[in-house]
Design goal:
Elements (H helix, E strand, L loop, with lengths): L1 H7 L4 H6 L2 H29 L35 H120 L5 H169 L41 H7 L7 H12 L25 H7 L7 E6 L5 E7 L4 E7 L6 E2 L10 H7 L15 E2 L21
Parallel strand pairs: 1-5
Antiparallel strand pairs: 1-2, 2-3, 3-4
Helix pairs in contact: 4-5
């Protein structure tokens, strides 16, 4: 069966479920060996097919040699300047303790950093709110300044309108004065013309009225002089008045120009003052913001330093505690190691003794199996002695071919043993059906006394023997049993049996191979037994596996009627 599995490199999952843990390890080990063997064979074939490369000069490696002309090696702790092994372990433990303490303190650092960032964000929000309030106040001030400037512009426009009206009035006054001047000139012209006319009249009437004219001229001359003096005085007064008016207007214009210049200078000064105030306010805000940021930064750095110092103290304390615990654990583990070493040596000596005993039993059973195989071949041509099971319940009435007892005479029908070699040749490597398992048991195992008590003449069936039942049914049967409960059942997957064993937490299943004419567990180097009874009795004293303590203690009997092995002892048409 193992050769068939290694040839196909495939295991039926149901068959794999029947194997124990140790048997599975052995099977995996064998399959891995077969894979490596095939891989090496394939690699050698590929290497043989590859064309040979020309020989090249190989690079040599020169090792540093010691005074004894051997490769120099450095053993930690033995060279000059190296620390001792205890100091190295202590340094490593201290380093590991500090690393673990740092890892434990990292969440605290992250938490504190998150809190500080949150606090810093809150302070920044407060500063931003204050800046927003200051900006709002500045915006209101700017609106007020803008309103003031608008009012000033309105006043300026009104003033300009007044000046414009004043200029219009002055222009009208100037036009009036020009008209008056023209009228005066016209009067003077008329006066001259009148004088010329009078002169002509005087010349005409010189002679006639010389005296009268002279008198009249004198009078007129006097009147004229008076009139001219009055006109000159009036003209002089008018000129003075006009000059005074012009001087006043010029003073008023100069005053208006001066006021306009002063107003423009005041507006420019006010605008510059506003710009300077805004610039100063911006600089003050920037300076205040920088001061706040520096203050927050200093506070943040101070808090970080304080918390780092606190965390460092905690880390040092925790590192010291961990180092102390490592030291205590190392001391305790050294004591445990010594105790386990002693226990391992005791178990190793016991295992060696058991291995020697097991090898001697293996050789003995191998010799007995060879002798039994020879006896079996000699007796294969003769009908074997029938073993009548006494504790088997009487089956229901069946036909003569399939009943255990003859209906008429009551004599048992004896199974005919066939040649084992012919049977092995025509039998497949694994059971194909339940009928094939029944035929195998009746032809091979029944004549060998499988499942019967000793001495064989009694014909009683062992309480641990069961028929063809599934793994689940076996575990249900062992459910109410304690540690050590077991049954032996006919396998559904191989030509053999399965021991189902009750452990503390689960059930284990060990496969029994019967392909070699003996009874042994699946795997290499297992002890072979001549009968199934011998295998069970041997493992009542010796554990099944090297790793466990599987001793067969309590057999699990039949809990159904008729028993599940009834069909095994009923002869079918092929055995009649």
């Amino acid at each position: 069966m193992l050769q068939d599995i290694l040839e196909k490199m495939y295991v039926d999952p149901e068959l794999l479920a029947e194997l124990s843990d140790e048997q599975r390890e052995i099977l995996y080990y064998k399959m891995r060996e077969e894979q490596v063997r095939r891989w090496r064979l394939r690699e050698s074939e590929i290497e043989a097919k590859k064309p040979k490369k020309p020989n090249r000069k190989y690079r040599n490696v020169n090792f540093l040699m010691d005074p004894r002309n051997e490769p120099w090696t450095w053993v930690l702790g033995e060279a000059d300047g190296d620390k001792s092994w205890d100091e190295t372990i202590e340094h490593y433990a201290l380093k590991q303790a500090r690393k673990m303490a740092e890892n434990e303190a990292q969440p605290l650092r992250n938490k504190q950093a998150a809190e500080m960032l949150k606090q810093l964000e809150n302070e920044k929000q407060k500063v931003e709110e204050q800046e927003k309030e200051a900006d709002e106040i500045q915006r209101q001030d700017e609106l007020i300044e803008l309103e003031i400037q608008r009012q000033k512009q309105k006043d300026l426009q009104i003033q300009q309108e007044k000046e414009k009206q004043l200029k219009i009035t002055e222009e009208r006054e100037r036009q009036r004065m020009k008209q008056e001047e023209l009228q005066r000139l016209e009067k003077e012209k008329q006066l001259k013309h009148e004088q010329e006319r009078l002169k002509v009249l005087e010349q005409e009437n010189v002679k006639k009225k010389k005296k009268e004219i002279q008198e009249l001229e004198k009078k007129r001359e006097m009147e004229k002089q008076k009139q001219l003096e009055g006109e000159k005085e009036q003209e002089r007064l008018e000129n003075l008045r006009r000059r005074e008016i012009e001087r006043q207007k010029l003073q008023e214009r100069r005053e208006l120009e001066r006021k306009h210049i002063e107003r423009q200078e005041q507006e420019l000064t006010e605008q510059k003052r506003v710009e300077l105030s805004h610039r100063e306010a911006g600089l003050k805000r920037m300076q205040f913001r920088r001061e706040q940021e520096e203050r927050f930064k200093r506070i943040h750095e101070d808090k970080i330093r304080e918390r780092e110092a606190e965390i460092k103290l905690r880390v040092d304390k925790r590192a010291h505690e961990l180092y102390q615990s490592f030291t205590d654990t190392r001391v305790a583990s050294s004591a445990d190691h010594q105790r386990m070493e002693q226990l391992w040596r005791e178990r190793e000596s016991i295992a060696k003794e058991a291995d020697v005993r097991r090898r001697s039993l293996f050789l003995e059973t191998k010799i007995n199996a060879a002798n039994m195989r020879e006896n079996t071949l000699e007796a294969s041509e003769m009908p074997s002695e029938f073993i009548e099971p006494k504790n088997l319940p009487m089956p229901r009435r069946m036909s003569i071919r399939s009943s255990l007892y003859d209906e008429i005479g009551g004599e048992p029908i004896r199974p005919q043993r066939r040649s084992s070699r012919a049977t092995e040749k025509r039998r497949s490597k694994q059971p194909e059906s339940r009928l094939a398992i029944l035929e195998w048991f009746r032809e091979v195992e029944w004549p060998r006394g499988a499942g019967f008590q000793r001495p064989r003449c009694d014909g009683d069936i062992e309480p641990w023997f069961h028929g063809i039942i599934s793994r689940r049914d076996a575990e249900q049967s062992l459910f109410n049993f304690g540690i050590g409960g077991f049954i032996v059942r006919v396998s559904e997957k191989v030509w053999g049996y399965v021991i189902s064993y009750r452990c503390s937490d689960r059930c284990k299943h060990f496969l029994i191979d019967t392909s070699g004419g003996t009874y042994q567990f699946f795997g290499k180097g297992q002890i072979s037994h001549q009968t199934l009874y011998d295998l069970v009795e041997y493992h009542k004293i010796n554990a099944i596996s090297k790793l466990g303590d599987e001793l067969l203690v309590t057999p699990c009997g039949q809990d159904v009627s008729p028993p599940d092995y009834e069909e095994l002892f009923q002869l079918g048409p092929s055995s009649s």
